[in-house]
Amino acid sequence: MKKLQNVFLFGIVGTGIGSVITAISYLISDSDAIAVKDLLIWLAASFLIGLVTRIMFTDKLPLPALTSIHLVLTFAIVLVTNLILGIVDSAAVFLKGVLPGFIVIYVIVYAIVFLSTKINEKEINKQLSK
Q: What's the start-to-end Cα distance of the chain, in Å?
């Protein structure tokens, strides 16, 4: 039960981060409105990305390998979501039009999470040394 709660928590955190990114993306895009169906699909994709993020907390692979796997899986989820919603009509269009923004967002979110983790580790080590 505890493991299921942990998995669900990663999905919820992914949904929270994804909802902010989705809102910002739609605010800066030229679209007039977002359909509820589109929002729900993006939230489901964000939940999946949250689940994929769980692999970053394993010690079985080095961080560069985990980051690469996470990047590829996240990219695949975003690509499929864009195709389902008809935002792009082919992977080639996605690569040309969406990939640069995807990379920027990925790096920003990754940096925030990485720095947050490092700050938490420092705090924990500080408390343990007392």
A: 34
**What pLDDT was estimated at residue 33?**
67
**3-state DSSP call for residue 33?**
coil
CB 53 within 8 A of CB 15: no
Convert the pLDDT of each residue in 16-61 to its tens digit. Answer: 888 888 887 777 776 666 778 888 899 999 999 999 988 888 888 8
Amino acid at 75: F
DSSP secondary structure, 9-74, as one string: HHHHHHHHHHHHHHHHHHHHSS-S---HHHHHHHHHHHHHHHHHHGGGG-SSS-HHHHHHHHHHHH
Helix (H) or strand (E) holding 89: none
- pTM, whole model, 2 decimals? 0.73
State the residue for tokens 């994804």.
18
CA-nearest of 102, 53, 107 to 80 is: 102
- What share of the chain in percent tops pLDDT 90? 16
**49 with 74: CB under 8 angstroms?**
yes
Count of helices and strands (H, E) across the chain: 5, 0
